[in-house]
């Protein structure tokens, strides 16, 4: 396997322009002759399907939800970055590029990131033209805020529902194309296999979740925009259905998986309240602007009413450890310290879950309310306080909030070149599903930007270039042996899941166990010993899963949510193992990947000499022995430096 | 921490044409901090272990924003707590009402056929959007976003309509199973913005026609939809849609769409 990035050369600001100028095109009258498959209907998939349909291609778009409008992009709260410089505070495409490369801890590809920053401008224009109601100032112009410690105000937002409004914009464009007949939508369909014919991606096998029918869909090109794999942790801020099956199936067919160990943990989520917890809810990071984080100094105070703990017995650990940044340290630093005080120092607070340390810290608004008044605090955070109270039953004005970090985003994903094409010809990957732009750590408000840049502006163009280059693909019939083989392998896998030899436990039982292992050893901080232990524990658990998973009803062609989950958990097992292998191999700390062996003053210490590369893993047939390939990264514009927040 | 045993009467139905019926289950040791759907998860896990078919229900983000979840709880679409989707309903609110027996039903409307148990097909709502719930703008052809200032009150009001999550609770709560609130929210959101003017009257005409064609009932101003809406979308938007619709019907397509200075 050879990793060719196909990056253009020359001045970075001209690369995308030049690349477009020298790429192949497909003439309008020829476009309808090509069949395009898009899997996923979120920001990347929805935007790509709509745009490709509008260009005149024949598009089929698939999603597992009952409507494309429900893709998990919808849950993004904070905002979307764009280098518009509407605030006249010195922002530019270059500065957004610079911040993103640095924020990614020098583990992303400069050319891709520059293009992302460039396209951020077009995204805002496009979204506003669609009717996305971004926040505005009284003069009627668009409002911006500073987000995640950025020195400029470049974040566009729509109350706390930016993802929803952007997704509904892409969804309306998609629905318009469905009405025009250029896109055929397949809701409640799950991709279970990729069809590769003569080295090219030529279709997928899907299961219709309503009636259980397994079908072949052939195409000239396949796009996966299926989101991230955060649910490998079982508990995350992802939607319950978010899964890795589409990318994992592609990986098993030859698409390299890049940097699986790069995951992002968000510091401010509502902690678990019990074993039954099904998901975690994120509370906007903006709360740390006014909230003070603390735990009791004495372990015996941990189950006390916080109001009864005197000031001198409160440990404001972020303020003490990081006097300069205090409660506003970056996400990864805030998250790790919460873990240290709860899991290592035994100072966590909140309900006790048997067999676990208390995992929760206080986020206290009392001094902010005393200083600024309740009205101002409610104006800033009223909706968040309401949401918190709905879930926990506590009023944050009276009782400090309880928070704990949770998995939020995965920077790793299928390896792609500059054209967003994977190591399989004709298989393109967009949005969170690819690894491309965020390096080892994603900055706030840049996920929506990447999803839409890929979907509206990159994929429609690079897919055209690919089709214009290959010109004509051999017709592939559904009856072709390669399609029939893929179909049979899916049927066999479904049969196997429904007929485990000793069916004892529901799929969730195993998913929870897997999640615990990954969280413990491959979560916020990692070390070689723990990762080896994780690998030792995952392998037998995977076998046990296939031995004992129980899926009811045991009918093939019917609506069966337990079966859907079982299939996703099976793939999480293999991906979880690869994550740990990758985390073990990457013997350095960088961004969200924190190896306790590699620190300076408690902060991440990169090893640029040995690890300034993308780790792309090739499937070998044995999940425990993947083959490693490296794409070396070079930094011509942004010179690597160390992050420090002391 | 309070726990309770609850009796659940759940609508079970094999498919669109099958005859459905309530079946009774006991949810044991339900914890006050659980969400309503976590109670069902727990029950389902037990049903699977006992070899009984788990209850099918739709859900995804569990943050009240994707609009997937849809259960009628003791007669209330999304349950008894106002402005709350059923995925965000927590058991302490149910306990506070003193309920020990709970009936769970799917959204009931002719336009939402049951797929299985509590899962229904809401494709009709997508088709209403397809009929005109968009602004026709080609990717890449937009002008600079700040070239069209929009007064903040207008933008804010458009936003109030745009918060619709497309769950269909308005339909489930309406005695006529009307989708007026859903349709009006989109018609109003786009119809208030300068970008949406070109297609404004054509849009309302097409969307209302599609709503009727899907078999949704008419609005007779009960106001149940507003009460059930987890985003609190106001029925004022239905009045706004009706005004636009009347305007669209009394003027010819040509008159309405001609720019002011034409002819």
SSE topology:
The complex is a heterodimer of chains A (646) and B (263).
Chain A (H helix, E strand, L loop, with lengths): L14 H7 L6 H4 L3 E5 L3 H13 L2 E5 L17 E2 L11 H11 L6 H21 L24 E2 L5 H19 L2 E4 L2 E9 L2 E9 L5 E5 L2 E4 L20 H8 L4 E2 L4 E7 L22 E5 L17 E2 L1 H5 L9 H14 L16 E4 L1 H7 L1 H19 L8 E10 L2 E2 L12 E3 L17 H24 L10 H18 L8 H16 L5 H21 L12 H25 L13 E2 L2 E2 L3 H4 L1 E6 L8 E6 L14
Chain B lengths: L2 E10 L8 E11 L4 H14 L22 E2 L2 E2 L13 H6 L4 E5 L8 E3 L2 E2 L2 H8 L21 H11 L6 H5 L6 H13 L7 H14 L10 H5 L7 H15 L2 H5 L6
Parallel strand pairs in B: 1-5
Antiparallel strand pairs in B: 1-2, 3-4, 3-5, 6-7
Helix pairs in contact in B: 3-7, 4-6, 6-7, 6-9, 7-9
CATH topology of the largest domain in chain B: Fumarate Reductase Iron-sulfur Protein, Chain B, domain 2
Strands of the widest sheet of chain A, in order across it, are 5-2-1-9-17
Helix-strand makeup class of chain A = alpha+beta
CATH class annotation of the largest domain in chain B: Mainly Alpha
Q: What composes the largest sheet of chain B?
A: 5 strands, mixed
Chain oligomer state: heterodimer
Q: Strand percentage of chain B, roughly?
A: 5-15%
Number of domains of chain B: 2
Query: What does the overall shape of chain B look like?
Result: elongated
Beta-strand portion of chain A reads 5-15%
Helical run tally of chain A: 17
Enumerate the spans of chain A where pLDDT stays under 50 for 5 or more consecutive residues: none
Low-confidence stretches of chain B: 256-263
- CATH domain topology of the domain at 266-407 in chain A: Flavocytochrome C3, Chain A, domain 1
User: What's the pLDDT, averaged over the residues of chain B?
Assistant: 95
Q: How does CATH name the architecture of the largest domain in chain B?
A: Orthogonal Bundle
Give the CA-based shape of chain A. globular
């Amino acid at each position: 396997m050879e990793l060719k990035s196909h990056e253009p050369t020359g001045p970075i600001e001209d690369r995308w322009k030049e690349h477009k100028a020298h790429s192949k095109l497909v003439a309008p009258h020829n476009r309808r002759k090509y069949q395009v498959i898009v899997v996923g209907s979120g920001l990347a998939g929805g935007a790509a399907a709509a745009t490709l349909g509008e260009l005149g291609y024949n598009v089929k778009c698939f999603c597992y939800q009952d409507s494309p409008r429900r893709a998990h992009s919808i849950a993004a709260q904070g905002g979307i970055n764009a280098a518009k410089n509407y605030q006249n505070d010195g922002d530019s495409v270059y500065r957004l590029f610079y911040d993103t490369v640095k924020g990614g801890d020098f583990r992303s590809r400069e050319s891709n990131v520059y293009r992302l920053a460039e396209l951020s401008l077009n995204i805002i224009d496009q979204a506003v033209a669609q009717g996305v109601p971004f926040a505005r100032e009284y003069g009627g112009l668009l409002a911006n805020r500073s987000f995640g410690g950025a020195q400029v105000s470049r974040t566009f937002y729509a109350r706390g529902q930016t993802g929803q409004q952007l997704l509904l914009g892409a969804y309306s464009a998609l629905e318009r194309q469905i009405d025009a007949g250029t896109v055929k939508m397949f809701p409640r369909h799950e991709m279970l296999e990729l069809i590769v014919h003569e080295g090219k991606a030529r279709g997928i096998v899907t299961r219709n979740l309503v009636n259980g029918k397994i079908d072949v869909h052939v195409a000239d090109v396949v796009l996966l925009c299926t989101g991230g794999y955060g649910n490998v942790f079982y508990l995350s801020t992802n939607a319950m259905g978010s899964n890795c099956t589409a990318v994992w199936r592609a990986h098993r067919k030859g698409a390299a998986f890049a940097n699986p160990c790069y995951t992002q943990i968000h510091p401010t989520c509502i902690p678990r309240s019990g074993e039954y917890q099904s998901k975690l809810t994120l509370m906007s990071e903006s709360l740390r602007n006014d909230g003070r984080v603390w735990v009791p100094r004495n372990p015996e105070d941990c189950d006390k009413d916080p109001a009864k703990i005197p000031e001198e017995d409160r440990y404001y650990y972020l303020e003490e450890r990081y006097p300069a940044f205090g409660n506003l340290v970056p996400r990864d630093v805030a998250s790790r310290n919460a873990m240290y005080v709860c899991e290592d120092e035994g100072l966590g607070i909140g309900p006790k879950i048997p067999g676990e340390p208390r995992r929760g810290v206080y986020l206290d608004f009392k001094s902010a309310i005393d200083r600024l008044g309740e009205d101002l605090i409610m104006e800033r955070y009223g909706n968040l306080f309401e949401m918190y109270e709905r879930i926990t039953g506590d009023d944050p004005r009276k009782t400090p909030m309880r928070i704990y970090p949770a998995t939020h985003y995965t920077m790793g994903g299928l390896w792609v070149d500059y054209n967003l094409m994977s190591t399989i010809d004709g298989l393109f990957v967009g949005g969170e599903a690819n690894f491309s732009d965020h390096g080892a750590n994603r900055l706030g408000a840049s996920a929506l930007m990447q999803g839409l840049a890929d979907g509206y502006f990159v994929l429609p163009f690079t897919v055209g270039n690919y089709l214009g280059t290959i010109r004509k693909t051999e017709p592939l019939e559904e009856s072709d042996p390669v399609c029939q083989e893929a179909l049979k392998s899916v049927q066999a896998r479904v049969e196997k899941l429904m007929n485990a030899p000793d069916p004892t436990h529901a799929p969730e039982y195993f998913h929870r166990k897997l999640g615990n292992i990954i969280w413990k050893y491959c979560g916020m901080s990692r070390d070689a010993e723990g990762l080896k232990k994780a690998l030792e524990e995952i392998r037998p658990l995977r076998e046990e899963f296939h031995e004992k998973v129980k899926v009811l009803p045991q009918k093939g062609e019917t609506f069966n949510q337990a079966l859907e989950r079982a299939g996703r958990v099976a793939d999480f097992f293999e991906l979880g193992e690869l994550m740990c292998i990758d985390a073990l191999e990457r013997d350095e700390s960088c961004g969200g990947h924190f190896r306790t062996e590699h620190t300076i003053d408690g902060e991440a210490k990169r090893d640029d000499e040995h690890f300034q590369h993308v780790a792309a893993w090739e499937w070998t047939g044995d999940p425990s022995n993947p083959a490693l390939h490296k794409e070396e990264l070079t930094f011509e514009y942004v010179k690597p430096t160390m992050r420090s927040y002391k | 921490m309070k726990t309770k045993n609850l009796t659940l009467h759940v609508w079970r139905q094999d498919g669109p044409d099958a005859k459905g019926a309530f079946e009774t289950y006991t949810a044991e040791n339900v914890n006050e901090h659980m969400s309503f759907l976590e109670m069902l998860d727990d029950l389902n896990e037990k049903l699977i272990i006992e070899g009984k078919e788990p209850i099918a229900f739709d859900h995804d983000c569990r943050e009240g924003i994707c609009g997937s979840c849809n259960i009628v709880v003791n007669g209330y679409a999304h349950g008894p707590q106002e402005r709350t989707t059923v995925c965000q309903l927590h058991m302490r609110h149910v306990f506070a009402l003193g309920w020990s027996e709970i009936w769970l039903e799917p959204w009931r409307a002719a336009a939402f056929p049951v797929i299985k148990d509590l899962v229904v097909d809401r494709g009709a709502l997508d088709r209403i959007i397809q009929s005109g719930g968009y602004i026709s703008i080609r990717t890449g052809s937009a002008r600079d976003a700040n070239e069209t200032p929009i007064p903040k009150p207008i933008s804010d009001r458009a936003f109030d309509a745009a918060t619709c999550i497309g769950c269909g609770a308005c339909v489930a709560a309406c005695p006529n199973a009307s989708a007026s609130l859903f349709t009006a929210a989109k018609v109003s959101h786009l119809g208030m913005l300068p970008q949406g003017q070109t297609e404004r009257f054509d849009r309302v005409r097409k969307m209302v026609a599609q709503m009727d064609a899907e078999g949704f009932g008419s609005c007779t101003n009960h106001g149940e939809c507003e009460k059930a809406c987890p985003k609190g979308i106001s029925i004022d938007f239905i009045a706004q849609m009706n005004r636009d619709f009347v305007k669209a019907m009394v003027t010819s397509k040509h008159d309405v769409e001609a720019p002011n200075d034409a002819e």
